[in-house]
Amino acid sequence: MKVLVTGAAGFLGRRLIRALLARGELTGPAGKPVAIERIDAFDVVPLEGMNDSRVRPVTGDIADPAQIEKLIDADTLAVFHLAAIVSGQAEQEFELGMRINFDATRMLFERIRALGTQARFVMTSSVAVFGGAMPATVPDTQVWSPQSSYGTQKALSDLMLADYSRRGYIDGRSLRMPTVVVRPGKPNRAASSFASGIIREPINGVDAVCPVAPDTILWLMSPDRAIDNLLHGFELPKEKLTQGRVINMPGLSVSVQDMLASLRRIAGDEVARRVKMERDPAIERIVNSWPGNFSADYARSLGFVFDADFDSVVHAFIRDNAAPAA
Amino acid sequence: MKVLVTGAAGFLGRRLIRALLARGELTGPAGKPVAIERIDAFDVVPLEGMNDSRVRPVTGDIADPAQIEKLIDADTLAVFHLAAIVSGQAEQEFELGMRINFDATRMLFERIRALGTQARFVMTSSVAVFGGAMPATVPDTQVWSPQSSYGTQKALSDLMLADYSRRGYIDGRSLRMPTVVVRPGKPNRAASSFASGIIREPINGVDAVCPVAPDTILWLMSPDRAIDNLLHGFELPKEKLTQGRVINMPGLSVSVQDMLASLRRIAGDEVARRVKMERDPAIERIVNSWPGNFSADYARSLGFVFDADFDSVVHAFIRDNAAPAA
User: Which of A144, A145, A244 has the CB atom closest to B132's CB atom?
Assistant: First the structure.
């Protein structure tokens, strides 16, 4: 099987590729495991340090039709589409966000439709599609009401994935992910970037700013569970997807103050004191429009997984952070 | 004020233009009535029989950027976008539906954004954005889950209108219309075409086929109320749109058998017997995916109107049908 991963140089992309290589096989439409012969690892920046003969790194512009034609051919029967412009940047650079977060996704669907392969296609959506007045626990039946261009673009892509799947052009699954915490590396322009920063930076001896109120409730998933769910989302037989192709993932509902209490409990007072509370209205406006808890009944019934508590999320970061970069 | 109406040669477009001409003015962003000096009446087919110096008929391709540039200029501060490929045809001709129902709408928004006019923009959406398991009365918070490409394309356009409005590029209002009944003229390729046909054809002495079960519940609005609501949707101050720009319209929830009972009551047994019951699974699948009743609380609070009962809808058709074509 030939697999395409977009956003391959991102932190989830790298982890996904490592997980695919470690498994060596994937169960697709045939219903039994098939060996992964090749992974086309696409990103706008080069993927480095992934030394495996099955991985072919490719760089380019994901919204260029000629690039897409080269990326996906009749043998590409599995796609994990993770490439995206993050929420803060998509809000500031509207045209770029539309082009990468929506137009490129549509072009990928169109390419598969033109080939007639009905490739299985997993992508990540976001809780940023929700907004406005909502119950404390958001049901699967909650209307989409994005309060950001990022959320809008994810919802547009979700609608297209669902219709292309309904028509039999692709076999799509869009996983509406919680904020993935703790991300390694540097802060990015996602409005949710602080949610990793307030754990990662202090543990690495660096001060961090928390731009939202302590009682802000976040909906989180660890990187480990995110990868588990991407693979599970791929391998689910399509017959099981009785309530649609766009699936609110389960997650962990936790307040910022409880996150900081975990940090203090695990890493100590001195580390926890590196977090400064400085509210930023622009970030608060976006983050507070995202719900802090979801029923995710459909996802639970399909066997998607979630983290038991935030302490285990911090422990997992400390474990990964101490390991040599891969 | 210069007004653009797309889909101007369609039956709602013609009625809307006549209503605009009769009023002679519209209340826009300035908050007070402004005289309508010109109506650009755009359609793919020529608009005929509209003899008023204020009306300028234009024909062309709504998805052609050069055409859109000509249609909308810095003086175009009011747009009623009614042009669409109907549901049945959009299901059969996927690319055409995407191009007209979504890409063209996006281009109109982009044109206004490029001009920087923040033009007020009213368009019609559809209950076809809903589908799957739903409560008998659908709340405003119901998730979108289109079961047709038409519904998908309307939902895509709704999301774009909301984001362009939020960003201040346009001042958009999308009215999610019930099925408009009774349409004059000939059957079209909308899956809902029969809902007018089973009243119109018998009254005009022609046999009609009803392709759905008698207990099918439809969500309806008369042409008079549709025009009232388009104008009301335009004139609402944007400050009142506190729950978003995409508004489920109120309507009349009625079963097919009750519609036929109205026909019999008003037009007599002989007329009612011209309706033959012949179920068509392709039409039933689409129509049954549409809800038959909505709370429409937000629209009601904003003053949108609806029909009191189906008898008055039939009477209005008989009145219009007897009048000389305008």
Answer: A244
Domain-embedded: residue A87: yes
Nearest to B72 by CA among B17, B109, B29, B21: B109
Cβ–Cβ below 8 Å for B133 and A160: no
Closest by CA to A298, choosing from B133, B285, B139, is B133
Which residues does A contribute to its contact with B (CB < 8 Å)? 94, 132-134, 140-147, 149, 152, 155-156, 159-160, 162-163, 166-167, 243-244
**Chain A closest-CA separation from residue B255 CA (Å):** 25
Banded model confidence at residue B191, pLDDT cuts 50, 70, 90: confident
| B278 within a domain of the structure (yes/no) | no
CB contact under 8 A, A146 and B162: yes
Identify the domain containing residue A35 by its residue range. 2-177+221-250+294-303
**The domain spanning residue B46 has which CATH number?**
3.40.50.720
Chain A residues lying within 8 Å of B156, measured CB to CB: 156, 159-160
Q: How confident is the model at residue B326 (pLDDT cuts 50, 70, 90)?
A: very low
The 8-class DSSP code of residue B62 comes to: T
- Model confidence over B87-123: pLDDT tens digits? 889 999 999 999 999 999 999 999 999 999 999 999 9
Q: Is residue A208 part of a domain?
A: no
In chain A, the residue whose alpha carbon lies closest to the alpha carbon of B149 is: A163
Helix axes A256-267, A310-322, angle to 10 degrees: 50
Band (A289; pLDDT cuts 50, 70, 90):
confident
Region for A24 from its dihedrals, namely left if φ exceeds 0, alpha if ψ lies in -120 to 50, beta otherwise: left
> So which residues of A are the catalytic ones?
150
Name the band, by pLDDT with cuts 50, 70 and 90, for residue B46: very high
Which of A163, A241, A245 is the mutation pick for testing B, counting most B CBs within 10 A?
A: A163
Look at the alpha carbons of B222, B223, B228, B231 in this order and tell me if their dihedral is positive or negative.
Answer: positive
Is residue A276 in a domain?
no
**Which of A133, A146, A159 lies nearest to residue B155, judging by beta carbons?**
A159
Distance from CA of B270 to the nearest CA of A (A): 43
* Integer Cα distance of B177 and B247 in angstroms: 9
Q: What is the dihedral angle through the alpha carbons of A6, A11, A16, A21, rounded to the nearest 10 degrees?
A: 100
- Chain position carrying tokens 């099925």: B179
DSSP state of B177: E
How far does A218 lie from chain B, in Å, by closest CA?
22
In 3D, which of B41, B19, B5 has the Cα closest to residue B226? B19
Query: A166 vs B159: CB contact, 8 Å cut-off?
Result: no
* Total tally of structural domains belonging to chain B: 1
Q: Is B298 a catalytic residue?
A: no
Per-residue pLDDT of B223-264, as tens digits, reads 999 999 999 999 999 999 999 999 999 999 999 999 999 999
State the Cα–Cα distance between residues B27 and A44, nearest whole angstrom: 49
* A132 interaction partners in chain B (CB closer than 8 Å): 243-244
